[in-house]
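Hello Y.,

Per our agreement to keep a running log of every chain we model this quarter, I'm adding this entry. I've kept the format consistent with earlier entries: sequence first, then predicted structure.
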Amino acid sequence: MKSVLPGMSLLLCLCAAAGCTPQQPEPSVLQGRWLLTADEPILGPTTLTFDAEGEVTRIVIQAADGIQLIRNNPASETVLQGDQVEIYVNAPLLGTLAFEGTLNEQGTAIEGQLTMNVNLVVATVVIDNGNAALVKVQ
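Predicted structure for the entry above:
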């Protein structure tokens, strides 16, 4: 192990001297703000914001005129495999949102299915919102 470290240090120094820099990963196609719509909505207009790694950093629900429910950095998981997208968001007081769909070739829209769980004091209500879409707005 000791003999590897000096060699690695030398390699990094040579690389730095030659002007090579580590490659930054490409930002996720999901990076930006997306509008969520559903055939059977129970919420007002909803936007999801994703960071460069494709993780949800903000969810905003327009509950009524002038009333927004905002959750920054909600507990979430995003899986992007090819054109298949799975998004799970757990926002306290709002419940959970599960969206599964297919990303279009342009990377600007995802068509799929939306399910929401609304957490009540004595029960969890599962709502199948049916067909849904996420459309990139920024």
